[in-house]
């Protein structure tokens, strides 16, 4: 079989171009650090990388959600810490005020102190977060959840559903409790009234009962004095029950924060594992790639040399 000069030229040119293309491809891998840049580079690895990238994106979303949940739970816990301090002060005042030897002026002074604590409590119940949203209003967070009328009656107008956040694939968590859960709910083991009925669940109504009793002069009226003591005793039971409920909510918040820390640690571990898997799928092995680069560079040099030698065996030489 006879080979024409044109065929020899085409074969040698093709060999040089193929060697050059392979060398440049490996060079691109070294410069980008990626073994798989296009799906055609390694279809199986590219497909697995797409799935893994989606998992990484989802993990990042959950991490952001946990940051949000930590912020909201921490803010609520900080607020409820102040609430327990106010309620504790009110309990101390009630103990002092439940004394049959006090004058009407002394009782009125205690009532004034309780009014100040009630106002503090109302302000805390209408606390806002860093974005100006009402913390204890549920999903009606654009308006104050608690309102007090001219007679001192406090009502709740916030949402009935607590705000939740998905913080992991299979975990939804309450990030903010409603005001009714915190200030108008009793625990299952709350103290009953002497007649066996449930106690007052509205902490503001409990304080109003005490304030009204202390604001009412009794003088030497024994019946009025007995009614006042009964009202104060009821208020003390009510505050104790409300205090325990608030502590239960704070305990839940503490548990949530601990769980969020654990989920963050688990998420960090997952992120490291997925990053390693992604690197194994698409990143270059520099040792192997540098070796290939050097070898292909030598092959390209050899192709150039071969082309030069082969051209002398053809009509190229004769046409010079």
UniProtKB/TrEMBL annotation:
Keyword terms: Bacterial flagellum, Cell projection, Cilium, Flagellum, Secreted
Subcellular location: Bacterial flagellum; Secreted
Entry-linked Pfam families: Flagellin_N
Coarse class of the protein's main subcellular location: other
GO molecular function, one term: structural molecule activity
InterPro entries to which the protein is assigned, alphabetical: Flagell_FlgL (IPR013384), Flagellin (IPR001492), Flagellin_N (IPR001029)
CC terms in the record's Gene Ontology section: bacterial-type flagellum hook; extracellular region
Domain Flagellin N-terminal residue range list: 4-140
Recorded family membership: Belongs to the bacterial flagellin family.
UniProt cross-references to NCBIfam families, sorted A to Z: flagell_flgL (TIGR02550)
Protein name, as recorded: Flagellar hook-filament junction protein FlgL
